[in-house]
Amino acid sequence: MENTTAEQAGEAIAAVDRAQRQVAAEVGLPRIYWWGMAAGWLALGLIDQFGPAWLTVVGTLGFGMGHSAFAARLLGGRRRTDRLQVSAAVAGRRVPFVVVGMLLGLVGVTIFAAMTLRADDAGHPTLWAAALTAAVTGFGGPEILRTLLRWSRA
Q1: Contacts of 91 (CB under 8 A, 6+ apart)
Q2: What are phi and psi of 78, to 5 degrees?
Q3: Quick one: CA dihedral 24, 25, 26, 31, positive or negative?
Q4: Which tens digits make up the pLDDT trace of 92-137?
Q5: Which residues contact 33 (CB under 8 A, 6 or more apart)?
Q6: How, if at all, do strands 79-81 and 84-85 pair?
Q7: Measured between alpha carbons, how far is 10 from 26 in angstroms, rounded to an integer?
Q8: Which of 18, 83, 127, 135 is 20 to 30 A from 54, comparing alpha carbons?
Q9: Are 95 and 71 in contact (CB under 8 A)?
């Protein structure tokens, strides 16, 4: 290592930086997380559509608490698969904020869709709105999160 030139050192640092960015790009939440969210969303839509109002409130609170307990470990963004675990410095500290922001955006989409469907006198508007959001979450959750993380440079 005595004969390392400045160029070689710069290339080595650039290679390490590229490798770190590649690993950070793989960080995310497992697909089962997104399908669990989709199932919960659909269940809340069913409860809201066909159950009493108090059950909707209890279900929403229960879903929120269950999600918080389950996702607390995952929202650090450091577990992608069983074989990959990176430090928070590599994963980025903004990942939990991006995920929460995304979920709040999905809540807004659900409310907007339900209000639009209700104004159009559609049958079961909250169920259809929940189904729409569940489909978006289940099928597109990882891709949406990846895009939001890239946009936010998290």
Answers
A1: 24, 27, 76, 77, 78
A2: -95, -5
A3: positive
A4: 567 777 878 888 898 899 999 999 998 988 888 888 999 999 999 9
A5: 71, 74, 141
A6: antiparallel
A7: 25
A8: 135
A9: no
